[in-house]
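Much of what follows relies on a compact textual record of a protein's fold. Each token is a code from a learned vocabulary of local backbone shapes. The record below shows the convention in full.
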Amino acid sequence: MSTPDARVVLLRHGETTWSMQRRHTSHTDLPLTPRGEAQARSAGVLLKALALRDPLVVSSPRLRARHTAELAGLGPAEIDPDLAEWDYGDYEGITTTQIRETVPGWTVWTAPTPGGETAEQVGARADRVLGRVEPLLAERDVVLVGHGHFSRVLIARWAELPVAEGRRFAMTTGALSELGYDHGAHTIWGHNLTTRTEPAEGATR
């Protein structure tokens, strides 16, 4: 039975040099930039304002996610390999613009990623994550600290949409999304939330 005030909060890591340059980053373990560190601290202010219920914090194993959780004041986080970013395979480290020089119109949502994960594989990981945390929501909220594309997959799957519909939920670095329930149905209470007023880099790639 769903709890009306239960929430799953997604936190995308702060800026890195590659996110600033819109380069696809999955397994490459980059640190946050100084701006990314500031974004993580800013996210912590917003998280505190949400007054979450004894939140369980779960993070991607990547340094940029773990450091974001730390700077946001979330304390020790459980590590879940399923929260890692979409594996971009041969497209690791390059931009969508560069990929489209040889594959016109390519997006990660609609076209194959050679050497990487399929949408079905990424969706299965997202479903596993949500399947593990949803039973906990009767007692406590959950914060999932991770990455841009995978967080968007989590949003789509929570909303019972196909993985490809994650393209509708662009998410900037250091931003939050708030998932929950409305009359028992999965809903999206807030998306791409920050306390910043300046434009944020890294919304799309």
About this structure: The mean pLDDT is 95. The radius of gyration is 16 Å.
